[in-house]
Amino acid sequence: MPKVLTVAPGSLAEELQIEPGDDIVAINGQPIRDVIDLQFALAGEEISLDVRKSNGEEWIIEVEKEYDETLGVEWEHATVDKVRLCHNKCVFCFVDQVPKNMRKTLNMRDDDYRLSFLHGNFVTLTNLREGELERIAALRMSPLNISVHTTNPELRERMLGNKKSGEILAQIAYLAQHEIEMNTQIVLCPGWNDGTELDRTIEDLAQFYPAVRTLSVVPVGLTKHRRGLADLRNCTAAEARHVTAQIANWQERLRPRLGVNFVHAADEFYCIGDSEIPSALYYDEFAQIENGVGLLRTLLDEFAVLEKKLPQKLSRKRHVAVVTGVSAQKIIRQVAERLNAIRGLTVDVHIVSNDFYGDQVTVTGLITGQDIVKQLKNQIAADTVLLPDVMLKDDADIFLDDYEVEQVRDQLQKEILVVPPNASGLVYGALGKTHALPARRRYEATFARVQNAVSGS
How many other CB atoms are there within 10 angstroms of residue 427's CB atom? Predict the structure, then answer.
């Protein structure tokens, strides 16, 4: 049963005198099995809560609330019962490639369809229990994000190390039949699921459009900590250009039939191949931007709008440093060059290579605090350092290696300004307009998807 971990000040739960340690036994007389039962039950406007207080008292609370009003509590477990763990042994699993002394959450492999529905996590559907596909359909748990990787049953079983993984097309067909919307992805491993296998997967999934709304293709990520794992390698620049061309050819074939491009390459392919970032039309509705598909295009387009409003000079001189990873450096340097045309503003770009995970990991979001300190200590002339918040934990100023932002600040002896990884964050951070900075991104569960499912929209 759901146990309350924290209660937000001023929340409905606080008003109802619900406290940490209390259990929600039932809602509207129905026992709560997991977070899905909980969220659907709480979506109503009139609810009855059976609460077991931490001191053993039994309360029944009748409450009227707004349709989209939450209780304002954090639960002891994200799924109320326990997070469903991954049973696969994927040849490309990133968790198998991290140091063993990392914090526990970084070594946990979740594969939970409930977190896919509520948070947008990608899942493989290989550990569904009997009746759970039917539950997804009955509760209209849409959209789901599904890691497909390949629709070749034998190849998928080899890549995922799970004999149940070959059922993916039948599972997708069932969900499509019941109008469940899906976003799908392929982690592309050279020599495994590229070439003709990639063609096969694109063709198979496109037949389910619009139920399968999008397909993203992302490059495999390999660290220096791979030991005793499958023989994999990264895409070369030539292979990255071949993949983007192959996807562009598929778009040309699919667009007249579907009305959309459907399949998209992740930004990293364009960085690896040193290719031009496609226009916004390429990305349809940017449905997989949180999967690294279209982030650089949105940054460029947003900057083009902000550029028209840039001042010619600053009233007070300002010198800032921007920290970024290897893959995004070309775009960041391009923006910094334009900012440096403002009189009184100096923007330095500092590229941090990934010593912690290995130099084959080039994305900004996997840069650690210790690499920043090791590579930039005594190297920064600027007064203020801009750090993209994708380097940090969602709910705290902590890097992947448990370095805190304060530690980096103290080691560099510089002011640290954490900014969103977009054009607004870069521009307003550089100009010192902290009041105009967009809110830090936080990937928290909301009622949005539950409301859509309940209303059938």
Answer: 23
